[in-house]
Amino acid sequence: MFTKTKVAAFGAAAVLVLSACSSDDGGTEEVATGDFPEGSTMAELAEAGEITIGTKFDQPLFGLIGPDGVPVGFDVNIGTIIAGELGISEDNIEWVETVSANREPFIEGGQVDLVVATYTINDERKEVVSFAGPYYNAGQSLMVLADNSDISGPDDLAGKNVCSVEGSTPAANISENYPDANLVLFAAYTDCLEPLRNGQVDVVTTDNVILAGYVDESDGEFAIAGEPFTEEPYGIGLALEDDEFRDWINDVLEEIFEDGRWLEAWNADGSAGTVLPEPETPAVDRY
Ligand code: GLU
What pLDDT, in 10s, does the model give residues 223-235? Predict the structure, then answer.
């Protein structure tokens, strides 16, 4: 498991960096909201000393709720680092469960300040929210029962019951490009697992790295079928047109790609690196 101590360590490192910022006269000063442009979202959050972040609660390796009610995983670690850069400690992060379909509404309605939730950056979503990142590149894949050898790619889905999630890009891809599949939609990917076990559906589809978490937990019951067949760049969702906040998060991402904290977040207990290979460093897209 990703221990609390480790979460705290991410935050603490960030606060130390911030508190050593040099001032114009060559001395150092404490972190203050004044470190951020007046009126910016960064200044507001730093001043409030708390942040609300939407993430998944049922996706091992990325966002999985722990016994103490705090989620763990790579997305959670990325959110924790960003909060830390605002001077906000782990204890002052409120984690809100976002399922795929409520990510845009939660950002638009102000229920969350950020979404870090296996959230693919795409043009349709960019109409209603902004994205920093990507901080990881995934791809859509298929998961079947381990003894199923009928399916090895999306062209094998005709006539099959294919389970996915409302408001997700994998579901949209199947309904647009593989109309002969019978798409079965739920709110969250874990809703697909029992139907896969008992044969009500033949396949679960979403990003390869989400499926890898379920395969890992399944004790040999589930397997990935074939190779990823889309590109799913993961971004950090925030309010539309908050360009200052987006630029600042992109700066933080570039810094943590460089200084090793991104990889440390990947490899932490309960995070993606415990199961998945080390990823290539993504390139931030400042669209
Ligand atoms: N990355 C895809 C998406 O944002 C699938 C994963 C998910 O639903 O969270 O829709």
Answer: 999 999 999 999 9
**Measured from the CB, is residue 232 less than 6 Å from ligand 1?**
yes
**Using a 6 Å cutoff on CB, does residue 119 contact ligand 1?**
yes
Q: Which of 99, 121, 207, 230 to mutate to test ligand 1, by most ligand atoms within 8 A of the CB atom?
A: 207
User: Which is nearest to 143 in space by CA: 213, 48, 235?
Assistant: 213
Token pair of 42, please? Answer: 């960064």
The minimum-distance atom of ligand 1 relative to the CA of 119 is 4
Q: Which CATH number fits domain 4-137+233-274: 3.10.450.50, 3.30.870.10, 3.40.190.10, 3.40.710.10?
A: 3.40.190.10
pTM score, two decimals? 0.89
Distance 135 CA to ligand 1 centre (A): 14
